[in-house]
């Protein structure tokens, strides 16, 4: 039985952040819950450290008898960092890092939850290492391979921001960097409700625990294509898949979610009303968390 609404998670044991070796590099990881329970691996989006997954969200998943793992990808948080603007790795390396992390933690198979770029990584992981992926949950993301649909572009406001980006802050000025992160998050939230106080708090935590915040903000966007990238064909994804997507996502309008749900055999789509391009905010946890627990209630 799954606890109703996944309870609060306030008493769930959690590890301190720790540095581990995975795929030959240093990654920072934190776990919630009992390692004997099924593992849920949370993969963050571009330029986002583990803080992109709210601690309360992780704890409530763990309260549903899941072993929840969140981590800093390369160039974010406390994980290994490259010079700003010059990442020394590829997208495929990030996929391999997730496998290496499971190896380090002694996890044979995980329920993989990816958001945005992390959702693309999750799709590649399911293709390249299907034996390691028990289920997929794709949040605020888009097909990582070709589809039969012509998918809509980002919102006009977001396209304008991409064409004329905000000036970079002084990366040594904590207050300026926090303000930069807050405004970036506001942009990706679109017309959804925006909790500036909460975003500012998380942004401060990100700045304080990130080895090189300039590299964190730049390097994932500077990744070059692999010579032999994994080819994702949605119809060949065998892992049971849940798609969670907000109605107000300005980067990937909801047609992207429908393309995933229609292209992946047996996939289920849940639309989150009033949610932008973001991890499920607390106001929709009573929908999102039980859905993830039900989806991952399988071997």
From TrEMBL:
Top-rank lineage group of the source organism: Bacteria
Gene3D superfamilies, sorted: alpha/beta hydrolase (3.40.50.1820)
Organism whose genome encodes this protein: Streptomyces camponoticapitis
Official protein name in the record: AB hydrolase-1 domain-containing protein
Domain AB hydrolase-1: 38-277
Alphabetized InterPro entries for the sequence: AB_hydrolase, AB_hydrolase_1, AB_hydrolase_fold
SUPFAM superfamilies, per database record: alpha/beta-Hydrolases
């Amino acid at each position: 039985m799954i606890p109703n609404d996944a309870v609060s998670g306030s008493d769930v044991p959690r590890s301190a952040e720790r540095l581990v070796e995975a795929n030959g590099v240093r990654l920072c990881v934190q776990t919630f819950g009992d390692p004997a329970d099924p593992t849920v691996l949370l993969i963050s989006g571009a330029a986002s450290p583990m803080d992109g997954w709210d601690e309360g969200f992780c704890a409530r998943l763990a309260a549903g008898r899941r072993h929840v793992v969140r981590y800093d990808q390369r160039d974010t948080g406390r994980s290994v960092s490259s010079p700003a603007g010059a990442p020394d790795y590829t997208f495929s390396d990030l996929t391999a890092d997730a496998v290496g992390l499971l190896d380090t933690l002694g996890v044979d198979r995980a329920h993989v939850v990816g958001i945005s770029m992390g959702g693309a990584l999750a799709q590649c992981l399911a293709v390249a290492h299907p034996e390691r992926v028990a289920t997929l949950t794709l949040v605020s993301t888009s097909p990582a391979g070709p589809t039969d649909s012509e998918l809509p572009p980002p919102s006009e406001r977001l396209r304008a921001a991409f064409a004329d980006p905000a000036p970079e802050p002084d990366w040594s000025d904590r207050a300026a960097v926090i303000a930069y992160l807050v405004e970036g998050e506001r942009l990706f939230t679109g017309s959804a409700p925006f909790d500036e106080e909460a975003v500012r708090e998380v942004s401060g935590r990100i700045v304080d625990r990130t080895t090189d915040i300039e590299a964190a903000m730049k390097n994932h966007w500077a990744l070059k294509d692999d010579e032999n990238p994994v080819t994702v064909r949605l119809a060949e994804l065998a892992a049971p898949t849940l798609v969670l997507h907000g109605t107000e996502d300005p980067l990937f309008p909801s047609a992207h979610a429908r393309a995933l749900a229609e292209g992946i055999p047996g996939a289920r789509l849940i639309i989150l009303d009033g949610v932008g391009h973001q991890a499920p905010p607390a106001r929709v946890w009573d929908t999102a968390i039980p859905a993830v627990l039900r989806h991952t209630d399988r071997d």
